[in-house]
Amino acid sequence: MKKNANDTDIQIAICGSAGDGTIAAGDILKRAMSLQGYKVIAFDLYPAEIRGFGKCISRIRISSGQTYSLKPQSDALVSLNDPHAIPHVVEVRDYGAVIYEDTPMARIPEGGHISAHVRPAQIPYGLGIRHISEQATGSARSRNIVVLGYMAGLLGMTRDVFHQTIGEKFKTKAPAVAEQNLKAFDAGYDLATRVFRLDTIEIKPPRHTKSGADAVMMTGNGAVVRGFLDAGIDNYFGYPITPATSIMERLTVEMPKTGGRVLQTEDEISAIAATIGAGYTGARTATATSGPGLALMAEMVGLGVMAEVPSVIVVSQRGGPSTGLPTKTEQSDLNMAVFGGAGDAQRIVLAPTNVEGCYKCAGKAFEIAEKFQTPVIVLLDLYLSNRYETVIPPKRNPFLRKPEKKIAVRNGNGAYKRFAATADHVSPRSVPGEPGLMHTVTGLEHNEMGRPSDLPEVHLAMSHKRHKKLKGALNLRGLTLCKRFGDEGEVDVGILGWGSTFGEILEAMYAAQSEGIRCSAMKVVMLSPLPIEQIAAFHDDCGEVLVPELNYEGQFAGLVSGELGRPVTRLSQVTGAPMRVEEILNEVRRLSGKQSPARKTKQQDTGDERALEAGLS
Amino acid sequence: MKKNANDTDIQIAICGSAGDGTIAAGDILKRAMSLQGYKVIAFDLYPAEIRGFGKCISRIRISSGQTYSLKPQSDALVSLNDPHAIPHVVEVRDYGAVIYEDTPMARIPEGGHISAHVRPAQIPYGLGIRHISEQATGSARSRNIVVLGYMAGLLGMTRDVFHQTIGEKFKTKAPAVAEQNLKAFDAGYDLATRVFRLDTIEIKPPRHTKSGADAVMMTGNGAVVRGFLDAGIDNYFGYPITPATSIMERLTVEMPKTGGRVLQTEDEISAIAATIGAGYTGARTATATSGPGLALMAEMVGLGVMAEVPSVIVVSQRGGPSTGLPTKTEQSDLNMAVFGGAGDAQRIVLAPTNVEGCYKCAGKAFEIAEKFQTPVIVLLDLYLSNRYETVIPPKRNPFLRKPEKKIAVRNGNGAYKRFAATADHVSPRSVPGEPGLMHTVTGLEHNEMGRPSDLPEVHLAMSHKRHKKLKGALNLRGLTLCKRFGDEGEVDVGILGWGSTFGEILEAMYAAQSEGIRCSAMKVVMLSPLPIEQIAAFHDDCGEVLVPELNYEGQFAGLVSGELGRPVTRLSQVTGAPMRVEEILNEVRRLSGKQSPARKTKQQDTGDERALEAGLS
Amino acid sequence: MNEHLKPVYLEEKLDEIRADGHQDYRSKAIPTWCPGCGYYSMTEGFTMALNRLGIEPENTVVVSGIGCASRFPFFVNTYGFHTLHGRTLPVATGIKQANDALTVVAVGGDGDAFAIGAGHIPHAARRNVDITYLVFDNGIYGLTKGQASPTSAVGFKTPTTPYDNCDQPLNPLMMLLSYRASWVGQAYAGRPHHLADMIAEAMAHRGFSYLHILSPCVTFDKTDMTYANLDVGVRDLPGDHDRTDLLAAMAQVEAKEAPALGVFFEEGRPTLGDAMIETIRRAGGQAA
Amino acid sequence: MNEHLKPVYLEEKLDEIRADGHQDYRSKAIPTWCPGCGYYSMTEGFTMALNRLGIEPENTVVVSGIGCASRFPFFVNTYGFHTLHGRTLPVATGIKQANDALTVVAVGGDGDAFAIGAGHIPHAARRNVDITYLVFDNGIYGLTKGQASPTSAVGFKTPTTPYDNCDQPLNPLMMLLSYRASWVGQAYAGRPHHLADMIAEAMAHRGFSYLHILSPCVTFDKTDMTYANLDVGVRDLPGDHDRTDLLAAMAQVEAKEAPALGVFFEEGRPTLGDAMIETIRRAGGQAA
Ligand SMILES: Cc1ncc(C[n+]2csc(CCOP(=O)(O)OP(=O)(O)O)c2C)c(N)n1
Ligand SMILES: Cc1ncc(C[n+]2csc(CCOP(=O)(O)OP(=O)(O)O)c2C)c(N)n1
Ligand code: SF4
Ligand code: SF4
Ligand SMILES: [Mg+2]
Ligand SMILES: [Mg+2]
Q1: Taking Cα atoms as reference points, which of A239, A280, D166 lies closest to residue C92?
Q2: Is the bond preceding residue B529 a cis peptide, omega within 30 degrees?
Q3: How confident is the model at residue A567 (pLDDT cuts 50, 70, 90)?
Q4: Which of these, B108, B438, C88, C255, is most buried using a 10 Å CB contact count?
Q5: Class of the CATH domain delimited by A482-616
Q6: Run means of pLDDT, 10 residues per run, chain C, 288 residues
Q7: Rounded distance, CA B170 to CA B162, Å?
Q8: Mean pLDDT throughout B19-37?
């Protein structure tokens, strides 16, 4: 799994304002590189407001080997709008490239031009982007493509693949559109080939060129949609909310093609209620939302637990609390996902750590929900929902499309016991339409027949049943519930992580190893019930256990400590951005006793006293 | 605090079916004894259904010294309905009395008469209850009062006080009603004085006879109402739900008398929304609900946290999950109260442990909510909401009726910063009507002005502010946040508890001490933020820490372990009934190494494997 | 021989009741309602309607919320879902959406429907989900022991309105008409045969049918919606009422001192299921 | 001299605008709405109405939910509460209940009001809470980028209705009339002066006033509720419309191909505040 130093690993940032075509240029770059078989990870940031000229930034990491997150530093920054791009110049590494317009339109205030911000060790490439666009296409609208071509030429990327990608991208438009864009691209590309290259970056051929044709670029939300479709989703109910909306939007297009049904409900309570209603009939049904929607669903999820009806709920977290930061990422809905209901209402919670995991968890969630007759929450966050990765889709559909289910039968005296006691605590289920097995399910405590009962022994036995059956989920096949990476055996520092942050954790762990620190990382995908045995074993092996996560309270750390009864070190970050690899690495160094002196200064600079505090608690 | 062996301490259980006047008889007994200055603790169980002849049972403990819960065994059982009462015969101690009808109406099946269930060591008192009632009053409807009189006579209770209490109880009815009931009482009483008493129970004069006049019988919900009124509640919004409804019902009667306003809203979401709306204007406003209602409120509580608007939410827990067991008690909404919202949405959670605590927490909750500008949840459960205790109301109103608040001012450049950074992280607040201090509050992340902002530094600073300010609540005066009882210094076993169960914990602790076990108990009233320093210090002192609670998952144990990073022993009970003192005591014995051999057998008898398991985890 | 003069033999009558088959739709559970509660008529009317329409119990799902009325599913021998307070319609919508072949009946009290559940009714109605919604209106919260409901009259005294109710009650039928529910009718528990007819008619309607059923709570309401008051209060819809005319229906509903029994409005239009099939067709898919 | 022929001098005009004072009701924040969005008219109309009625900004609270429309409070210089999606009315009710002296205006989009918030409207209306509710209806979910809303027309194509919308839209005015809201009117963003008049009239009404405002979303709706379509679509209420006649109002609303602008219904009856004061009187208390 370790990286080969000879491999390609470059990261490009393209920054402009809404309307500049920033995201579109990034999109072409991602697709072109993915087509050649490179691994691509990309994450775009959009402005929160609909209107106006807010900042867009697209960061794309291209590598021949496997990588796990964006790099803290980019190899090149392309500016389509200087005021937006200036703060990002510091993100470019030494000897990295900064590409910008060198003939600005109007007089600009002092310091307003990006060239004034390029550090001595960075290499500035100014060009007349607008002018070139106008010359090549007759309009300034292709600035984004010109500069894309320039960048491609500069880094020695293959021209043809870009041509192919641009052709595809515009194939639904008039032919002239693609033509214009190809001209713009070539103008930029040609210019770059004549430029004296000072940089050391090189694009080396990808490892598996063949796979390029098979590989697809996918976001976490896109992968959820794919997973749902491959698992044979029958119904979807949802209410729009950032960052989950795109799941519903894509399903409304795709599901009807195979006879599936999508309904936009009047709110989130209705969405989960209808999901559970459909689940009661035996249909594979899901909903997706974000934190505020999950809060509204809390009561209904409890009904799903009590009535033992399967349902699948995807939650893409954003900054909180309350309406919070709708377009920023955070991992702060964990507590609610695990604990957010009345009574002892344990449910299954899965958190994928990458795009491929989104596909697997989403598809598997139906099987799990059916097998254990309970709600399953799949927890993403904005960063994972929206980030692109190259994925090779599986050759064979990996999901069971027909529920494995126990066959319900009337027992001897003619009475069907919907909630009969069984060895694995899962009772045979019947669904409407099956003769002779009529029953009523309820949110009231009930006996084996499903009749309301508040007898002490019934409540005890049924509480037992509802909790014990979930333990079976810890023996699930076909899905990684938790996994250790890095050094085996005893280590100085173990990093325990979940969700989108695990990419940064892996990067930090490999970096720490390369500094000679004995280090492992464990990802936990199944957050409820927790695979506590494996976590305990990991804890046993680690001198210190660090839990980095994107929330203030250290929610996962609290969950693990609560079950384990042992201490862990929390590392929290709540800036709305993905965790910084450097931040984790610094903590690992500190915990291993190898604190880098640079760290201290940096902390004081950012005034981030919280991170320090949290790290100590 | 230890009990004096010479004191009175008797417990009576009265059992009948709905319509027998069981609860009414219990009510007279409670009031009569309280009037004389005895301490009374009582808890009634009603049937879940409106209709029919479900079981009612009223258990009343009467003592001269302080006690903390009902006793596991009663000294006398009064049956008004044998099928319902038979299962409770085992609850009567050796040499205790069982009082019943000895001339049943019709032929009864074998074993159907209670006399067949009285154990050899118990003392049966059969009398012709119906006949006596008919003779004394011309109707069988006063059976409950006849048997009450008999019981009073048998135990040597003072006749006069009962006369007074009966007179008061029926004073709004026609005079004949009181008269009939007095006759019925005397008929029973006289009969008992002629009976040969085999029992050893004796009623001794109460310690403080004078206080009788001042003492009042109050339930937890009644105390919440009193606390609200004494703290000057302005508005109440609520939606009926068991077991919280009686809070609203009493407030609708009382609040308008002093100009207060109560509105029954269309649902719980509206109730909390209106509460927060009213809170925004500076008015003291509360709502009350149970688990399902709190689940619905989750999103809105998060808004209260984010917008920093004070509100008070009383939650009386019942059996869960989902609709669960509406008329049974449980402590399983703790996780939701503490964690049930999107994002890092910490709020203040208080859980009183007795009726007096309900009064204090409810009244203080307004001050706390105002002081920290945040929602405050006061967590009761059905057992505490409905149980009666004798309370001496405070001579002086202990609550600040006017909010202490920081005065908001425009600063130099004319802009008012609603969310200004301050040393204690609480910002000066203005309310509508104050000129020049207009501002908008929002659930979006916002800067000091209250304007939406998703800048990293703003989110970090504001997350910090919202969490840090709550730490101030750990230095609150005038309310016990946590308290240690029993042995000082190092002990074999410490019992850590919260809510209604703490009464049973104290009883168990005193019992353990009397067996020579070094033992302490700590009650935690402030559940969020947790007074973790005190808990850690307690943990340091204890060889083992036992956490008994009425939920399956050991929610408080998880919360404490999560913050402490240390193990505790869980003791869970989910039968819908209050925790059994014996159960706690057995665990204390086991943990201290003094396991009683009797215990093992008992466990196997009840087949309660869960309690064992939980105890071990 | 005049039908009414024929003597009635008990055994014969019992055989007749057994033979007609509607008792097969009753479950073994004994209703937990108070003796005299109007809700008993609903069980009778519902089982008679199912029997008359020949619907199999296994293809029927009764969905309810929380309340005395919502205990209904336990007392009939069909599939049932006793959901949460106010969530009857969205759960029922999910069931029907997932399986068009099922007969789905939603049941709830006035509080369940018009207090906590009020937001869902317009949407089930406008989408024309092909289900029947029976609201048992007793003008009170029965299960929680008698608080005021959104249909309680002004002046009604309850534990939450000790100084008399001041809130103007809602007019449920007017609301349903304003949502353009495709079938809107009213019945009364004190007229069980008409009630059974109306349930059958509502269920036979293709699309969203709403039946409002006036039903006394004998335990907590001794003054307002009693049998005595309703017996003299209700009237039949005029014989010439045009049930295709929305505004005429509204006029009948507005005259609410004397509640009219019968079908106020009826209209045939595509159901949610139809819309789904059309969408699938447009997408080039095959309906399941 | 003919008013229309008088020349307009820019400086003079600006002075006039400044002098009339309604600009004082604007906050310093620049609206985040798209250029051309109908919502700008609301800010203008609202500040003009406040100014005309002489209401002090500090005694005014504007309450909103979530959506483009709900950003409104940030752009006016009063007290404001930007609440949660759909919860505008219960929060506004709480504010008014706590302080009768405040002028409370609730604001929200069509989704906020009639999708997630639909359950609260009947109750605010029947209780006659003395607030004004302005719904900005653009027939779309603006803030989440253009999905269908409960007022979207059949056939409308959006990201959640890629094969065209099939759900019959709600008729908000009919709904409000069926709840017997005590003041019901309609205005259009394209007629800003009439809009300002209507806001002022709605606010002057004692009781619950509901103003429905048609407002194009220029960014996500290029086909349906556009200025072009609405300009020719709207009509005035007939001059002889009797605004005390509920059924007449309903008839006007039912003719919905051409939405009418004006006041449909108005009625004077006790407000929630009145009811509270009466309850306090009956309890023998003193109103605060
Ligand atoms: C979320 C929630 N809130 C409140 C309750 C308590 N509750 C149960 S039934 C009911 C009202 C019942 O009234 P209605 O719907 O009219 O039915 P009825 O009992 O009169 O038939 C209430 C408030 C609950 N179970 N769940
Ligand atoms: C509970 C919840 N669900 C969903 C959302 C996402 N959301 C924000 S605004 C909006 C709809 C906006 O539409 P509308 O109310 O018509 O206002 P407009 O933007 O059109 O003015 C939605 C679904 C949310 N913020 N909260
Ligand atoms: S309380 Fe009222 S509604 Fe409920 S069962 Fe009894 S009579 Fe019927
Ligand atoms: S998206 Fe539509 S509603 Fe929102 S501001 Fe832009 S034009 Fe207005
Ligand atoms: Mg009712
Ligand atoms: Mg809208």
Answers
A1: A280
A2: yes
A3: very high
A4: C88
A5: alpha beta
A6: 53 71 82 92 94 94 98 96 98 98 98 98 98 98 96 95 95 98 98 97 98 97 95 95 97 90 98 97 86
A7: 12
A8: 91
How far away, in angstroms, is B240 Cα from ligand 1 center?
7
Half-sphere exposure of C206 (CA within 13 A, CB side): 8
In this structure, what are the phi and psi dihedrals at residue A311, rounded to the nearest 5 degrees? -160, 155
Instruction: Spell out the domain ranges in chain A.
Output: 9-214, 217-391, 405-479, 482-616
| pLDDT tens digits along A217-265 | 999 999 999 999 999 999 999 999 999 999 999 999 999 999 999 999 9
Distance from the C270 Cα atom to the nearest Cα atom in chain A, whole angstroms: 16
Contact D77, D27 (CB under 8 A): yes
Q: Which residues line ligand 1 (CB under 6 A)?
A: B 239-241, 268, 292-293, 296, 323; C 66-69, 85, 108-112, 136, 138, 140-144, 149
Does residue C225 belong to the interface with chain B, where contact is any CB pair within 8 Å?
no
| ipTM of the complex model | 0.94
Higher local confidence (pLDDT), A201 or B102: B102
Subunits with 3+ Cβ pairs within 8 Å of C are A, B, D
Pocket test for ligand 4, best of D137, D141, D219 (most atoms within 8 A of CB): D219
What is d(CA A514, CA A509) in angstroms, rounded to the nearest whole number?
Answer: 9
Mean pLDDT of chain A: 90
Return the closest-CA partner of residue D178 out of A338, C175, C154. Answer: C175
In chain B, which residues have their Cβ closer than 8 Å to the Cβ of D82? 440-444
* Cβ atoms B563, A564 nearer than 8 A: no
Selecting from B240, B256, B264 the residue whose C-beta is nearest the C-beta of C163 gives B256
Q: Which of A163-167, B35-39, B520-524, D209-213 has the lowest mean pLDDT?
A: B35-39
Give the separation between CA D166 and CA A79, rounded to whole angstroms. 44
Q: How far is the CA of D32 from the centre of ligand 2 (A)?
A: 15
H or E segment at D60?
Answer: strand D60-64
Q: Can you spell out the DSSP letters for A474-521?
A: GG-SSS--EEEEES-SSEEEEEEE-GGGHHHHHHHHHHHHHTT--EEE
Please give the Cα distance from A122 to A73 (Å, whole number).
12
Say if the Cβ atoms of B51 and C160 lie within 8 Å.
no
pLDDT in the model for residue A598: 45
Closest by alpha carbon to B300, among B323, B262, B271?
Answer: B271
**Residue B117 near chain D (CB below 8 Å):** no
Work out the angle at residue A567's Cα, subtended by the Cα atoms of residues A561 and A572, and round it to the nearest 5 degrees. 80
pLDDT tens figures, B137-180: 999 999 999 999 999 998 889 999 999 999 999 988 888 899 99
Which atom of ligand 2 is nearest the CA belonging to D84?
A: 26
C179 touching A, CB under 8 A?
A: no
Does the CB atom of residue C40 touch ligand 3 within 6 A?
A: no
Query: What per-residue confidence (pLDDT) applies to D257?
Result: 79
Which of B48, B298, B565 lies closest to A568 in CB terms? B565
| CATH architecture for the domain at A9-214 | 3-Layer(aba) Sandwich (3.40)
Domain assignments of chain D as residue spans, ordered by start: 3-282
CA A218, chain centre distance (Å): 11
- What is the Cα–Cα distance from B492 to A25, expressed in whole angstroms? 69
Fold classification of A217-391 is Rossmann fold (3.40.50)
**Number of residues that this document lists for chain B:** 617
Cβ distance B259 to D79 less than 8 Å, yes or no, reads no
pLDDT at position C6 is: 55
What digits encode the pLDDT tens for the residues A108-121? 676 778 888 998 88
Return the ligand number nearest the Cα of C111. 1
Q: How many CA atoms lie within 13 A of A239 on its CB side?
A: 25
